[in-house]
Hints:
heterodimer, A: 451 residues, alpha/beta, Alkaline Phosphatase, subunit A, two-stranded antiparallel ribbon, 17% strand, disordered N terminus, B: alpha+beta, Immunoglobulin-like, 3-stranded antiparallel sheet, 28 helices
Amino acid sequence: MxxxxxxxxxxxxxxxxxxxxAGAAQPNRPKTAVIMVWKPGGCSHLDTYDPKPDIGSExxxxxxxxxxNVPGTRLTELLPxxxxxxxxxxxxxxxxxxxxxxxxxxxxxxxxDLDTRDKPKPRLPDWMSVAHYLRAREGKRTNPLPNYIxxxxxxxxxxxxxxxxAYSTFAVQDDPNLPRFEVPNIGVGNSAESRRLGDRATLRQxxxxxxxxxxxxxxxxALDQFEAQALTLLTHPQTRDxxxxxxxxxxxxxxxxxxxxxxxLLLARRLVEAGVEIVTSQLSGPLCGRTGVWDDHAxxxxxxxxxxxxxxxxxxxxxxxxxxxxxxGLDQRVLVVVSGEFGRxxxxxxxxxxGGGDGSGPAGTTQPGRDHWPQAFSNLWAGxxxxxxxxxxxxxxxxxxxxxxxxxxxxxxATIYHHLGLDWQHATIKDFxxxxxxxxxxxxxxxxxxx
Amino acid sequence: MHINPLRPVFALAVRRGRPAWLAGLLLAxxxxxxxxxxxxxxxxDVVPVLTKAGCNSGACHAKAGQGQNGFQLxxxxxxxxxxxxxxxxxxxxxxxxxxxxxxxxxLRKAVNRVAHGxxxxxxxxxxxxxxxxxxxxxxxxxxxxxxPKLVSLDVQPPxxxxxxxxxxxxxxxxxxxxxxxRDVTPVALYEANDRAMxxxxxxxxxxxxDIPGNVAVMVRYQGLAAVCNVxxxxxxxxxxxxxxxxxxxxxxxxxLKLIGVPPSPVCxxxxxxxxxxxxxxxxxxxxxxxxxxxxxxxxxxRDKLVDALLSSPDYADxxxxxxxxxxxxxxxxxxxITANFAFHSWVRDSLLAxxxxxxxxxxxxxxxxxxxxxxxxxxxxxxxQPTEQIEDVAQLFLGVRMQCAQCHHHPFERWSQHxxxxxxxxxxxxxxxxxxxxxEDVIFHKRGVAQAENKKIDLKAVVxxxxxxxxxxxxxTPNQHNGVxxxxxxxxxPRRMQAEVLLDSIDQFTGAKTDFADLPAxxxxxxxxxxxxxxxxxxxxxxxxxxxxxxxxxxxxxxxSLAQSxxxxxxxxxxGKLGAGGGRAERLAKDDKPAAPKIRELYLAAxxxxxxxxxxxxxxxxxxxxxxxxxxxPLPPDQARRIAYxxxxxALINTKEFLYNH
Lengths: 451, 662
């Protein structure tokens, strides 16, 4: 199994060396937590959560609608499992932002930066880093797990900006469905390596004699703490357990789906159960189709074939996560948010495929696609003691514009901060120029959700 | 003199030159009549009340923060004329009601008698409340042009020595253009620059905590600021001061005597050699350099070392690395490579030649032409907008942050929007035309020629005066008195090595090399021309090498993090360096010399010092331990030795003595 910090610092978790004397830390009184499921590239709202069955075929798409267990709420046939759980989530159909590019769109949603131009680097920290930072300031954590973990983390268009890498994600970039991920491989070679690292750590301890007295600022103390935490992370049974999906009932694993996405979301649930408070999981890669993302332009994917290819696993994983957090009573503490940076153009466009593969016809064949659509899209919220079973907002008959209760990125962020108990109204963080910058500007929690 | 508009009616009436009969009349009038006669000034009375109550703060009704519920005031009351319009005229004047002041929304909201998102801000019947009420009652008048203007702010005492745990009441006097003065203590705003050392209450009472040193309390009132400087003495005897080597020591030691904090002694040769090599040349001294320096009996060897380091190309590399990040030499697209290399070379060569600082800055700011002809033009390539130009120039070269003043008066400084745009006008005559290379413009001056006096500011002399001072040479180990001091230079404050330097140091120590794309083998991290190499180097990223996004040195992360600890312990690139072919571990393992000189070499290379006897013993024992392979069979001695040396390198790199400049 490969675990890294934002993609590097490769280390093998299991049994690297003996647990040091570190007193087995107990998790704090559980605090609220968030799991964000991210659909990079932008998911077509018309073909999923905001169906428009009564418009012309140049918009509609091939999918029928189905009833849900909430009278009046209908989804497309791509989401049969979620349709049975519609009382356990609330949809926002009136999400909107103003950036049409993936970088700027993601930065709008994840960090609240209203800039519509695509920038290579985020200017503002994403909400996950902000929450990580503000929670860290609430006091010392006794839980050995990092507080912000990305299970296949979104990393490309977000980051800690002026908060610094100390508040970025602990990124698990490997596929939790792989056997080597699920079975801790305590082979002979590893135990030798583990002994060796133990030897090194002991040697270091006896040579690390630099005068400690000068450390009134706690800087070296902090370093000691990080070193101990790093060792703990490698050796503590709780840490190992939190990542060990083999500890899950095999029926649970099946329920999520024995594939990368299913096991990612199962791992996300396992991590919040173990006391991690901020978890992200990006649904990308081969399960998306040829390009690995949800960006269903006609040149990249046959959007409808791609959705047929993709949505079974998606529906299974997301519905399992929702069901599971309720079944375990985590819904009181854990909020699940499922979103992407934007929706897709209601009007179907046609273009020649640039390459064949999953969800895409052979190169040169003309196929349907949809382009970027930030004006109106949908996202899903579950748990968090929010009001469930509802639909907030609406779009016009073609799904092009928001007609009711527009929700902005700032509202999206304020709602998440509200759930985490962070002072979205007043909390400020100093940017590089020393200017105190509000963590959200110009939004408020979506009251239809928060109650 | 204390003038409160609601009370000392006589004095005021007389001072304002009202006829004496009026004063006589006043004697006979009841108090409310007197209130009516003394006009309340919107600018000098009402706005300060709103500011003190926080109404116009960013999170509440400040325009900059959108203004809650449509009620907008200028941030911290810097635009009274606008505030007046919003307060009195906007929304059909619904916020104020002169005929029945207590029914005004302004007051009802302020005391939370109607629901107010900001809660209760004023006590009913309090002095500020009565002031607002009188202003309403008097007909909500805006000051005439002839109304006195605030001209200066005076804080008493301006400087004071206060004992630990002591307290001091400040008195703030505002002086107006008509010569009047007024005690504004209750309405001024107070802020200590270090809250760990002092807290200032809303009423201007300063409470000193238990940390000795110097602290400043800033007092703000309308557009002006004043400062009270407080020295908090520890009162310990300050004797046996190191020699005053230059003005740095004179000033620092005089302050230490004043506050009674004795400095630590001057550090030993090994510590100095390592410290000054890292600070000037951005690298560790080699084992050979350490040996020569430690053995030298020359009394001037430290001063000579500084001169040698300053004339080495390492100095230019290290400081060019610092400057190019601050000057935003960053690569956004592949085509930036030419400009970035040219700009980096220009900065480095300028530093190597010790080009006077003023000349360097002038060549940068007055640059015209194309990047190929004149590399400093590259700065204008990246910093395009006049607003960005003035902000960067102010922060980098003037030490002032102007950003806030773009949209409103700087809340904590004396800079107004007027200052901001006057300053940015300097850059308005810079013209640009596209060239054949996409994204690169030719820069010219539309009118006028940039000129300045030659000052010949010597950058190396600055480094020299700092590093040769006794202050810089103090030990990092505190004595019983100066441990908490982080402000007065009573001892050296250890710093974690920065990303590039740490990577180079690990390479130098292990004998490995880091490969950077498209650069000659052996290029060191401090010589990298721009930020693009961070992407390929997990090490540089995790240890916080800046991306050239900001003119603030704070973009460089200097704090420790879990990611860094994990990286040093277990990342594959660091592990690879330990066992690098031709590296130090391999060489020492193959060498048949006895262990002692090899251990000595390791300590000189890592810490520029000899190993102590207990360290020698621990290491010798570790090296001589028998080792087994994965199957539990004993390893042949050469392999066992190789493993032992790699472990030793790992252990030494992971000590704080290695990671820190101390």
